[in-house]
Amino acid sequence: MKPPTQPAKKYSTLGFGLLLTLAALSAFAADQKTKKTTTAAPIVAEEPKVAIEPRVRPSPSAAADPTDPKSSIRVDSTLVLINVTVTDPLNRFVTGLEKEHFKLAEDKVEQTIRQFSSEDAPLSVGLVFDCSGSMSNKLNKSRQAAAQFFKTANPEDEFFLIQFNDKPELVVPFTTNTEEIQNRLAFTQAKGRTALLDGLYMAMKQMKKARNPRKAVLIISDGGDNSSRYTETEIKKLVRETDVQVYAIGIYESMGRGARTPEEISGPGLLTELAEQTGGRQYAVENLNELPDVAAKIGIELRNQYVLGYTPTNLEKDGKYRRVKVTVQQPRGLPPLKVFFRLGYYAPVQ
Prior knowledge:
The chain is an alpha/beta fold. The chain is built from seven helices and 16 strands.
């Protein structure tokens, strides 16, 4: 990722006796501005490797300044934040883009991007893990996938674990200790039916306790649902209402390996729709050996996102769904780029 852009310096009015100091500061600011205008051209990130080392916790002296606008971005009734992933035709992440490369519209009306960030901010992540009977021969690789995903974590991230079969269970609440989650996964047994939608519902409710503004859910499942109380319609509406990105790894039997149940057939479409509504993605896996690599790729994607913030021109608090569209102004020298983002949000009602 490109290091965060240094915010513009602010200077207060000085007294008459400090004019010489003011002149020195002005010269320094001009010099910094000159340096700032010399930026590297956007680059395409190399295909990530699975063995990702966790980032070192920053020292107290390097901690984010609370007055820095990039460290104090918050979601409220007048600021909408959209997480954006940009990839090239080979599905590699594109980093180094600046605010001027993006255009954003709400209900087809262009908006002014007021906040722009591309640094790796702390995450709150929920792992929703399928342990139904159909996962019996997939559990070991699924555990490895979770382990590779956690290798991309930062010390400031927090995670929880929900397992589901006949019904969902919050096995580990929010924690920064990923080993605790992996230890619990080691004793997971596959049995029962599949309450995937109920598991996702529980995850969205648990996210209300998240301490980080960036939130995501990772589902590892073989698709389909045959035991949930909540319906697809209810869950689709829920993910639209919550500011949580949904990613899914769908482990599917090959079409040539015999008949599949209606739930297994509809599973890929369901997970894809849920993920794309939130700006996330669903990765279909038929070869179990690919699971760890795919999980690591999702973890890296969450570290290579842009955050666009804007104040809507439509300030009506009518509770209606607002459709969002993000486009990229093609930089010279790069192939056609693809953009992934949340498709919309519900306006506040008060």
